[in-house]
C-alpha cells in the first residue's frame, strides 16, 4: 500500500494497481458511513444546519398543539386571536430557520464537491502512464464532472435529511403516542409495510445507478474519440456509423436511467400510499371515536396534523436512503479513480541490473554524457518485451540520431528517457547519475520533447510557446521564434503572438504546429532535446531551415533525434541503429554506409529517404 492524501476524497491510503479489489459493502449502513466520511472538514456546518433544521421542525411540531388549542377555545367561545398570532409567528420562524439551514447544506455540498474535484484533477494529471493506456480519457473526465455532480446532491441533502427526518419523525410519533396510542399503532403498521417495499428496492436502485453512470462515461469517451478524429470520420463517411455506436451507449444510459426512475417511482408511490393510507385510517377511525365520545375534536385535529407532518420527514428519510444508494454508484467510480496509482515523487527502486558492454557512442568524449542507456530492457506488457538490450550515450552538445524500422523501439526509448515508464532491467543515467536515484521531476527538468503529434493546446500562440516558461521575457520569446523559423507565422496570424490558434492548433498547418512545439522546447533551455521525426511535416525549404536550426541548437544542448530522412541523419555526430529492440550498430553516416549492411538497407529503402515524408512509426 502507498499512502496518499486526497483532498475531499475521504481516503487516507490508495491501493496500488496490483492489490486485489476489496469486496464492496452495498448495505445502506455502509453507504451512510461513506457519505459521513466525505463530509470531513464540514462537520461544523452540518451541525449548525442540523440544529437549524431541528429548530424549524420543532416549531412545526408545536403548531398542531397550538391549532388544538385554537379549535378547543373556539368551541367554548373564548378569544383565539393571540393563539392565531402565535401560530403565524411559529410558521414564519420555521420558514426562516429552514431556509438558513438549507443554504448551509448547499454550500457544504459545493465545498465537498470542490475538494473532491481538486483531488481527482490532481490525481488524474499524475497517474502512471500505464493507467492512461488502460482507461479512456473522457471516461476519467466524466468522473470529475458528471459523477461528482450527482454526489453533490447526496452530501448536501441526503445525510442531513436522513438525520433530521428521523428525529422529526420520532418526535411526531412520540406526540402522536401521547395523543392516541391506538391510532398510532394503525399508522405504524401501514408505514412498516411501505418500509419493507422500499428496502427491497434499494439494491436495484444502486445497481441501475452504477450502470447509468458507467454508460454516461462511455458516451463521453466514444464522443471524444470521434470528435478528436473528425476529419477522418468525415472523409470515410462514417458519421452515421459513429452516431449509431454512440447512440447505443446513449440508449444504454437511457435504459439504466429509466430503470432507476421506475424503481424510484415505485418507492415514492409506496411511501405516498403509506402516508395517505395512514391519514385516511386516522381520519375514519378517529372520526368514529370522536362520534362515540372516545376523544375530543381538538385531539383528532392535532393527531391528523401530526400524521400529515409525518409525511415530510418520512418522505425525506426514504428519499435520502434512495439518493444515497444512487450516489454510491457515482462514488464507486470516483473511488476507483482515486485508487489508481500515480507517479512516485521520490526516487524509485532500481530495476534488475545486468552486465553490459560499454555503450556505443562517439569516441573521444571527455565530458560526462548527458544521457546513457546500459543494456535497457522493457515491455509494456509482461512477457512481451519491446526493448531487449539497448545501449548508447548522448554526449554534451552533440547530435545523436536514432534510426530503425517501425516497431524497433525508438519511441519506447523516448518514453523511458522521459520517465513515463521504468525499465524492466538495465540502467538509465542522466549526467552520470542513475535515473532511479533521482525523482522523475528532476530528470524531466533537464529535457524537452518535440514528438510527431506536436501537441498544441487551445489558447494564444504566446501561451503555447511559453507553456514551459510562463514568465519568459519578450527577448527570450523572440529568440526561440527566430530559432524555430516562426516569424512568418507570427506575422501572418491576426494579433501575432496574441492570436488564438484554436483547439489542437486547428489554425496552423502540421509543420507550423511542429515549429511551435520546437520553440516551446527551446524556451526551456534543456540539456537534452528529444526530437521525434522533426521533419515529418515540413516541406523541402523548411526542412533545410530546420537542419540549420538543429546545428545551432547542438551548440547549446544535446540532441537525440528519431529520424527517417537522410537529411536529418547524415549531419548527426553519431547514429544508433535499432533492430528488434536491440542496439544493432552505431557510428557516423559514412562509417555505417561502409560497414553496416542493415544501415545500407535502411538508407536504400523507404525508411531513410533523401527527401519527402518519412513513414510514421507505428507502435513502439
Automatic annotation (TrEMBL):
This is ABC transporter ATP-binding protein. Its main location: membrane. Residues 47-326 form the ABC transmembrane type-1 domain. One of its GO terms (molecular function) is ATP binding. It is found in: Cell membrane. Residues 371-605 form the ABC transporter domain. PROSITE patterns: ABC_TM1F, ABC_TRANSPORTER_1, ABC_TRANSPORTER_2. It is a multi-pass membrane protein. It comes from Streptomyces iakyrus. InterPro entries: AAA+_ATPase, ABC1_TM_dom, ABC1_TM_sf, ABC_transporter-like_ATP-bd, ABC_transporter-like_CS, P-loop_NTPase, Type_1_exporter. Residues 347-360 have a biased composition (Pro residues). Residues 342-366 are annotated as: Disordered. It comes from the Bacteria. Signal peptide: none annotated. The chain crosses the membrane at residues 45-67, 79-105, 158-178, 184-205, 269-288, 300-324. Keywords: ATP-binding, Membrane, Nucleotide-binding, Transmembrane, Transmembrane helix.
Amino acid at each position: 500500500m502507498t499512502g496518499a492524501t486526497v483532498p475531499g476524497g475521504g481516503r487516507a491510503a490508495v491501493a496500488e494497481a496490483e492489490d486485489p479489489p476489496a469486496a464492496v459493502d452495498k448495505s445502506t449502513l455502509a453507504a451512510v458511513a461513506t457519505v459521513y466520511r466525505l463530509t470531513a472538514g464540514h462537520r461544523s456546518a452540518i451541525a449548525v444546519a442540523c440544529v437549524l433544521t431541528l429548530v424549524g421542525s420543532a416549531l412545526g411540531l408545536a403548531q398542531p398543539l397550538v391549532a388544538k388549542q385554537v379549535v378547543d377555545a373556539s368551541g367554548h367561545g373564548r378569544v383565539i386571536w393571540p393563539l392565531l398570532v402565535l401560530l403565524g409567528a411559529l410558521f414564519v420562524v420555521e420558514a426562516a430557520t429552514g431556509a438558513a439551514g438549507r443554504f448551509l447544506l448547499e454550500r457544504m455540498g459545493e465545498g465537498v464537491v470542490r475538494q473532491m474535484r481538486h483531488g481527482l484533477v490532481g490525481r488524474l494529471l499524475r497517474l502512471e502512464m500505464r493507467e492512461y493506456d488502460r482507461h479512456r480519457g473522457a471516461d476519467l473526465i466524466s468522473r470529475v464532472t458528471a459523477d461528482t455532480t450527482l454526489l453533490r446532491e447526496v452530501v448536501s441533502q441526503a445525510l442531513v435529511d436522513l438525520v433530521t427526518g428521523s428525529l422529526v419523525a420520532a418526535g411526531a410519533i412520540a406526540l402522536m403516542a401521547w395523543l392516541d396510542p391506538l391510532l398510532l399503532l394503525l399508522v405504524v403498521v401501514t408505514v412498516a409495510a411501505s418500509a419493507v417495499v422500499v428496502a427491497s428496492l434499494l439494491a436495484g436502485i444502486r445497481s441501475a445507478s452504477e450502470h447509468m453512470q458507467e454508460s454516461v462515461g462511455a458516451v463521453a469517451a466514444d464522443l471524444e474519440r470521434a470528435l478528436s478524429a473528425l476529419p477522418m470520420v468525415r472523409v470515410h463517411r462514417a458519421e452515421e456509423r459513429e452516431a449509431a455506436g454512440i447512440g447505443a451507449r446513449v440508449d444504454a444510459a437511457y435504459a439504466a436511467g429509466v430503470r432507476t426512475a421506475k424503481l424510484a417511482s415505485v418507492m415514492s408511490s409506496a411511501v405516498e400510499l403509506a402516508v395517505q393510507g395512514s391519514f385516511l385510517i386516522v381520519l375514519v377511525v378517529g372520526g368514529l371515536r370522536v362520534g362515540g365520545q372516545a376523544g375530543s375534536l381538538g385531539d383528532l385535529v392535532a393527531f391528523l396534523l401530526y400524521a400529515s407532518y409525518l409525511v415530510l420527514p418520512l418522505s425525506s428519510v426514504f428519499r435520502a436512503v434512495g439518493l444515497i444508494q444512487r450516489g454510491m454508484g457515482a462514488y464507486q467510480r470516483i473511488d476507483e479513480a482515486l485508487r489508481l496509482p500515480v507517479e512516485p515523487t521520490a526516487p524509485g527502486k532500481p530495476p534488475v541490473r545486468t552486465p553490459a558492454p560499454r555503450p556505443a557512442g562517439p569516441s573521444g568524449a571527455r565530458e560526462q554524457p548527458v544521457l546513457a542507456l546500459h543494456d535497457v530492457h522493457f515491455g509494456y506488457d509482461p512477457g512481451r518485451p519491446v526493448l531487449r538490450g539497448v545501449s548508447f550515450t548522448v554526449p554534451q552538445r552533440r547530435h545523436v540520431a536514432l534510426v530503425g524500422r517501425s516497431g524497433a523501439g525508438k519511441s519506447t526509448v523516448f518514453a523511458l528517457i522521459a520517465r513515463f515508464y521504468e525499465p524492466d532491467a538495465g540502467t538509465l543515467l542522466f549526467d552520470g547519475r542513475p535515473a532511479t536515484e533521482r525523482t522523475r521531476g528532476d530528470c524531466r527538468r533537464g529535457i524537452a520533447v518535440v514528438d510527431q503529434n506536436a501537441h498544441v493546446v487551445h489558447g494564444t500562440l504566446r501561451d503555447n510557446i511559453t507553456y514551459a516558461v510562463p514568465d519568459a521575457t519578450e527577448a527570450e520569446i523572440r529568440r526561440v521564434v527566430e530559432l524555430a523559423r516562426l516569424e512568418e507565422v507570427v506575422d501572418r496570424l491576426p494579433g501575432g503572438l496574441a492570436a488564438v490558434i484554436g483547439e489542437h492548433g486547428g489554425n496552423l498547418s502540421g509543420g507550423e504546429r511542429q515549429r511551435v512545439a520546437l520553440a516551446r522546447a527551446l524556451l526551456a533551455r534543456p540539456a537534452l532535446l528529444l526530437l521525434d521525426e522533426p521533419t515529418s511535416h515540413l516541406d523541402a525549404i523548411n526542412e533545410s531551415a530546420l537542419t540549420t536550426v538543429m546545428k545551432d541548437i547542438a551548440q547549446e544542448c544535446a540532441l537525440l533525434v528519431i529520424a527517417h530522412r537522410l537529411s536529418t541523419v547524415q549531419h548527426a555526430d553519431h547514429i544508433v541503429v535499432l533492430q528488434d529492440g536491440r542496439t544493432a550498430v552505431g557510428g557516423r553516416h559514412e562509417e555505417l554506409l561502409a560497414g553496416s549492411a542493415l544501415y545500407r538497407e535502411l538508407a536504400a529503402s523507404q525508411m531513410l529517404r533523401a527527401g519527402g515524408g518519412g513513414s510514421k512509426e507505428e507502435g513502439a
